[in-house]
Amino acid sequence: MIKSAETARERILTAANKLFYAEGIRAVSLDTIAEKAGITKKTVYYHFKSKDDLIEAYLASRDQPTSISSGSGLGKPKVICRTRWRQSSAR
């Protein structure tokens, strides 16, 4: 079965998210991200020009509201969780 380009990009971002969080951005190589995502390094470069571009996309995804249904915060959220954050930050 051939995976779509969107799916590969999401898998790259999901792998990067987990690895960057666990090991730090500087410590993780594109080889490690590709291996974790189950794709080739060439596919990573197809979606991102450089590690800096991947980091930019990773940081942008972290700025998005999280979804209760998808847990990763990388997909389209079905239920926005900003209300609780605003309530807790107002204290």
Number of helices: 5
Helix content: 55-70%
Distance between the termini: 51 Å
**Series of secondary-structure elements, N-terminal to C-terminal:** HHHHH
CATH superfamily of the domain at 5-65: Homeodomain-like
Spatial extent as radius of gyration: 15 Å
Give the low-confidence spans: 76-89
Provide the CATH top-level class of the domain at 5-65: Mainly Alpha
**What is the strand content?**
under 5%
In CATH terms, what is the fold-level topology of the domain at 5-65?
Arc Repressor Mutant, subunit A
| Major sheet description | none
Instruction: Round the mean pLDDT to the nearest integer and report it.
Output: 78
Quickly give the structural class. mainly alpha
What's the β-strand tally?
0
**Shape assignment:** globular
Based on the coordinates given, report the CATH architecture of the domain at 5-65.
Orthogonal Bundle
Describe the structure.
The chain is an all-alpha fold. It has a domain at 5-65: Arc Repressor Mutant, subunit A (Orthogonal Bundle). The protein is built from five helices and no strands. The chain is globular, with a radius of gyration of 15 Å. Mean pLDDT is 78; it is low at 76-89.
Q: What's the short story on this structure?
A:
The chain is an all-alpha fold. It has helices at 5-23, 30-37, 41-47, 51-62, 82-89. The protein has a domain at 5-65: Orthogonal Bundle (Arc Repressor Mutant, subunit A).
